[in-house]
Design goal:
The protein is of the alpha+beta class and about 325 residues long. Helices cover about 30% and strands about 25% of the residues. Bound molecules: adenosine-5'-triphosphate.
């Protein structure tokens, strides 16, 4: 089915006969595969008598050679047409002994995930589903604030590509105004005090223009700018930003990044509720500390909060 898609991706008309000949199958088998393309991948195919079949819009697929041509050649890149989740594949690769660093990308995720088992909506060829695997030898300091570092790199990659309003929400979201454009999910295996691997999962909404599956306000690069983007270029730009900020973090620790992160935090000074399971703490955002923990003023007293189970929500009176 995906071979057929690769023949159609130029957005031109192709006759059923030519497609059948290229694939070594009958015209009715081509027809069946086209129906699967529409049903499984949500793509729309125009059928015109006498001309053949045409994708409703051309597709720019992920391509390792193009990623390298855009400047990111250092990391081995594994591209999947369809996968459960790029983070899950990255974790399996670590288990198989694949040498880090390496990058896992996919055209779509069938079970894309957010924090605490939540779902990340991941339609085919629209967005970026990206997991970078690093080996960490240096103990806890190298993990401190890491998901905030990744957020900053994602935000700068988006700004570089013209999404000037991209900004941060503690701990791990990138928003445009109050709409989510990217999410980050870090997963760790091994002993963080000794040698471990960390998977830096990043989902960015790139060319997605509609979906009714996301249950909160969202946006995409194309909705913000009115044009479509080449995801191969985005992978390379994101790679450059990740290299820059990970190197700074490695050399100087999170403290070197704290004030820049705060400058781009959308909710500085806002009245929020911090949700931890069934518990809720109301306060005002003061900023973050030198390890990336949230500083909240609660009943006039400053307190810090950290941990993967925390979510921040704006209060109605903020
Ligand atoms: P938190 O503040 O705890 O991070 P969150 O709702 O942003 O809350 P995440 O785990 O970061 O949680 O992300 C998962 C959530 O993101 C989903 O529950 C859904 O609401 C939303 N979501 C899922 N897919 C997308 C997408 N492609 N674009 C934007 N938002 C999405």
């Amino acid at each position: 089915m995906l071979t057929l898609l690769k023949l159609l991706k130029d957005g031109r008309f192709h006759s059923g006969q030519a497609l059948g000949a290229a694939l070594g199958i009958s015209r009715s088998a081509v027809w069946k595969q086209l129906q699967h393309l529409e049903a499984d991948l949500g793509l729309s195919v125009h059928k015109v008598r006498g001309k053949g079949y045409q994708l409703a819009k051309p597709l720019l697929l992920l391509d390792v050679a193009q990623i390298c041509a855009n400047g990111l050649c250092e990391w081995p890149v594994h591209v999947f047409d369809s996968i459960d989740s790029t983070n899950a594949e990255a974790l399996r690769s670590i288990e198989r002994g694949v040498q880090a660093p390496f990058l896992v990308l996919a055209e779509r995720q069938i079970a894309g995930r957010g924090r605490r088992g939540r779902k990340w909506v991941s339609p085919f060829a629209d967005n970026l589903y990206h997991s970078l695997v690093l080996r960490i030898d240096g103990g806890m300091r190298q993990i401190e604030g890491l998901s905030l570092v990744v957020g900053l790199a994602v935000m700068h990659a988006l700004r570089d590509m013209g999404i000037a309003e991209a900004a941060l929400k503690w701990p791990n979201d990138v928003l445009v105004g109050d709409k989510k454009i990217a999410g980050i999910l870090l997963e760790l295996v091994g002993d963080p005090a000794d040698v471990c691997h960390v998977v830096l999962g990043v989902g960015i909404n790139v060319n997605m223009r509609s979906t009714d599956e996301v249950d909160q306000q969202w946006t995409s690069m194309s909705l913000e700018s009115g044009r479509d983007f080449d995801r191969n270029e985005l992978v390379a730009r994101l790679g450059a930003k990740l290299q820059q900020y990970l190197a700074l973090h490695h050399e100087a620790g999170f403290a070197a990044i704290q004030s820049e992160w705060e400058r781009f935090h959308l909710w500085q000074g806002r009245a929020v509720s911090l949700i931890a399971g069934v518990n809720r703490i109301d306060g005002v955002v003061m900023g973050i500390d030198h390890q990336g923990a949230l500083r909240l003023k609660v009943d006039g007293v400053e307190k810090t909060f950290s941990g993967g189970e925390l979510s921040l929500r704006l209060r109605d009176d903020s």
